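Q: Structure for this?
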Amino acid sequence: MSLLEIENVTLKFGGLTAVDNLSFSVEQGEVFAIVGPNGAGKSTVFNLISRFYTPINGSIHFDGHDLLKEKASDVASHGVARTFQNIELFEQATVLENLLVGRHRHRQSNFLTELFFTPSVKKQEIQSRHYVEEIIDFLDLQAYREKRIAGLPYGVRKVVEVARALATDPKLLLLDEPASGLSVEETTDMRWWIDDIRRQMGITVLMVEHDMGLVSGVSDRVLAMADGARLALGTPAEVQSDPAVIEAYLGHAA
Amino acid sequence: MRIVFKTNYMQDIRPWKDGYQLSLYLILLAVVFAAPFFMDAFYLGEMTNVLIWAIAGLGLMILTGHTGQASLGHAAFLAMGCYANIILLDAGVPFMIAFPLAGILTGIIGMVIAIPALRLHGIYLAIATMAMSILVDDIIVLTEPWTGGVGGKYAPPVNIFGFMVDRWGTPREFYYLVLVVSVIVTLGYINLLRAPLGRSFIALRDSEVSAQAMGIDVARTKAISFAISCGITGLAGALMGLFAGAFNNETFSVVISIQLLMMIVIGGLGSIHGAFFGAIIVGFLPQFLSIAKEWVGAIAGGSSVAIPGLEFGIFGMILIIFILFEPMGIYGRWFKIRTWFELFPFYRKDMFKRQKSYLKTERLR
Ligand SMILES: Nc1ncnc2c1ncn2[C@@H]1O[C@H](COP(=O)(O)OP(=O)(O)OP(=O)(O)O)[C@@H](O)[C@H]1O
Ligand SMILES: [Mg+2]
C-alpha cells in the first residue's frame, strides 16, 4: 500500500474545476514532484491533502487513514507537514518559537500542568528544544534562531518554513515551490537538503516545483498537471519528453 | 555591550535571561512589596487601582495581544466577575472561595459566549463583543433581584484568613491582596507563554492556516484563550468592585471596554509588560491631568477649567500618537532602548524596521 493515495479527486471553485478527477499515489521513501503551468491546480492538491478544502468526490488516504474523515488540525497528527507557496510563518515570533510550534502535535501537557509549569512540562520543553536545535543545526539556521521572522530575508524564511515542517517529525513532507524566489546558491542548498531529508531522515517528500533543474535533480517520479487533470506521470526524463507536457507548456506560453 | 552565552536549554526555558535581569525583577518586586511603608494612603490607593487595571489588561492581553482576537466587550466580563463575587459573598460563601470561583465562572461564561463568535474575525468580532458590552447594562437592570439593578450594590469587607479587609478601612491589606493576585496571574501568564498553549495562541494570531497545518485546533484554542482571558478579567472585575465599594449597571459601561483595549494598545500588544505600562498610563492620567490643569490655571489665571471628556480625549490622542509612531507601544519603545544599551555601540537604526510584508490574501496558494 502506498503512503499517500489520491483517487478520482475533483474540486470545483464555482464554475472552475481546479482539480479534475485526479489520481496518483506516493510511495514510502520517494521524492515525488508535481509540475504544471500556473493555475494547474498544484497548490490546490496540497490544500486538499491538508483538509483546507473538501473534494466533491474521490478519496484521500494517508498511511491507512481516510483523511476525508479528519479535521484540518488532525492531518498533522498523522505525520503530514507542509510549507506554503506564499510563506505562512508566525511573523512576530522568533525562529526558535516558530519551530517549537512545530512540536505542538507531540504535546502531552495540558492547561493546568502548563499553568504551574510542572516538572513534566519542563521535561517536555527540554525534549522539544533538543529536537528543534538539531533541525536548526541541520538547516544552518543558528545565526537566526532568536530573530523575529518579520525582519528576516526571503531566502531565510523559506528555509525556516521547511525547518518548522521538519520539527513536526513528519512521515510526509509537502513542499510548495521550495525554490521559488531563491538565488542559484540557495536553490543548490535546498536541493541537497531535500536529498538529505529523504536519505538521512527517511521522510517522503511531495513537492510542487517549477525549477526543472531541481525537479530532475531530486525527484524519483514526476506528475505533470494542467487544468486540474493529469497529463503525464513517470520519471523526470519521461515526463519532460512527453508530447502532451511540451504542448501544455508551449500552449500556455504562446 | 552585554552578551548572554547560552550553554543549556534551561536558559531558554526559564523566564529570565540571566542573573542580571532576574535581580532587576526581584528588586522591583521588593519595592512594590515595600510600597505601603513609604507611600501615603492616597498613593497606595492609586497603586492599587493601577494594579487592578493591570490584571484586567493581562486578561485582555491574552486574547487580543497574544491570540489576535480583538474584543471591545471586556467590561462585560469585569461586570460578571464583580457581580459573581458579590453575589457569592452575599450568599455567605467565604471570600477565599468566592473570589476564585467568580473568575472561573466568568471564564466559563466567556467561553460559552465566545463559541458563536469564533467564526468572526477582526472588526466583526470587535463589533459583536461591543454589542455584548452594551447589552450587559440592560441585563444588570433586568436581573435586579440579584444585581440590585440601577440602585446598585455595596461591597462588604472581605475576610482573608481572619483579617477583615476593605479598601477604606485597611488600604494596606487591600493593596497586598491586589498585589498578590497580580503576581500570581503574571506568573501563570509567564508559564503559559513558555509552554505549548501560549505558543499556539501566538501561532493563531500570526497565521491561522499554518497553525492548523501544525496540528492546532483553531476553534478549540480560541475558545480556551477566551476562557482564560475572561477568567482573569473576571478576577479583575471582582477586585474592581471591592475597590469601588459601590457599583451599579453603569459602572462597567462600554466606555470601560474601549479604555481597556486602548490601554493595552498603548502599553504594547503582545507583551506582559504592555499590560502594566498601559495600566500606569490609565491609572495616573487623571492625576496628571488635574495637576496640569492647575498649572495651566495658575499661569493663565482664572480658576480650574472643567472640560467634559478631556481625559478621554487626551487618552485617544495618546493612542493615535502611538499607532502612528510606535505601533509596538510603550513596551516596544522600552525594548528598543534596552537593546540600544545592550548592543552599545552596535545598534543600527533599522534594526526593528518592519520588512515589507508580503501580499496577504484570504486565498490559500
Ligand atoms: N480559494 C479559491 N477560490 C477560487 N479559486 C481558486 C481558489 N484557489 C485556487 N483557485 C483557482 O484554482 C486554480 C488552481 O489554483 P492553484 O493555486 O492550485 O494553482 P497552482 O497550480 O498552484 O498555480 P501556481 O503555479 O500559480 O501556484 C486557479 O485557476 C486558481 O485561480
Ligand atoms: Mg501554487
